[in-house]
Design brief:
This protein is an alpha+beta fold. It is built from five helices and 15 strands. The chain has two domains: 56 residues, Structural Genomics Hypothetical 15.5 Kd Protein In mrcA-pckA Intergenic Region, Chain A (Roll), CATH 3.10.290.10; 155 residues, Pseudouridine synthase (2-Layer Sandwich), CATH 3.30.2350.10. Helix 1 packs across helix 2. The two termini are 20 Å apart.
């Protein structure tokens, strides 16, 4: 944690006082965090509320996390200028933003939150978090298809990382990726002369889509 996460830094900025004055307020017990007096320069979180002399300086923010089934045909954007945008179908009063992406013709699990830290954390771990998909293609698949997909295919000038691919039946397979290349599965299938007819993300890390239907959501704990 950096100094910017500390109570002293917050007081300096919000009250426009010196570091010495801020520390004095803390040590003398004049600052309340979550309705309790504190006498040390603690690390703050987004959920913390802060008050001085009965005046609330910062309201605690309730962090919300949701697993949402993005329907096919919806763009993963809150920009209302773009047709079929995500914001037009979200049922929440508070604005939640999507973490990660899922292209318009794909569907399935999408994280929604008001916690900006989750977005940063997800970006840093984009090539570490498993994402599982169920895929339907336009013609029968065989062992060669499964083997080639799992070993890696050159798309956009780079070879995809090896991944776990399992055949479900003649036209369906599951695939687990730890990469986030643009339209990766569709491009991989295209290189093998297959067209993706349906693509559903069913898992991100340990969170599964479970029994959600398109447009439905459930609150989750991360």
């Amino acid at each position: 944690m950096t100094f910017r996460n500390r109570l002293q830094y917050f007081l300096v900025k919000s009250l426009r006082i010196s570091n010495r004055e801020a520390l004095s307020l803390i040590l003398s017990g004049q600052i309340e965090v979550n309705q309790r007096k504190v006498e040390e320069n603690i690390i703050l979180t987004l959920q913390d509320s802060i008050a001085y002399q009965g005046k609330v300086l910062k309201e605690g923010k309730k962090l919300v996390y949701a697993a949402f089934y993005k329907p096919r045909g919806i763009e993963t954007t809150l920009n209302t200028q773009i047709p079929d945008n995500l914001k037009s179908i979200l049922p929440f009063e508070e604005e939640l933003f999507p973490v990660g992406r899922l292209d318009k013709e794909s569907e399935g699990l999408l994280f929604l939150t008001n916690d900006g830290r989750l977005f940063d954390k997800t970006l840093r771990k984009e090539h570490q978090t498993e994402k599982e998909y169920l895929v339907t293609v336009d013609k029968p698949i065989d062992g060669h298809f499964i083997k080639t997909m799992s070993e890696g295919i050159v798309i956009m000038g780079q070879t995809t990382l090896s991944c776990e691919v399992k055949q479900i039946d003649s036209y369906n397979f599951s695939i687990i990726l730890v990469q986030g290349l643009n339209r990766q599965i569709r491009r991989m299938c295209y290189k093998l002369n297959y067209e993706v007819l349906k693509l559903v993300r069913i898992r991100i890390g340990t969170i599964e889509l479970e029994h959600l239907s398109p447009g439905e959501y459930r609150f989750i704990t991360l």
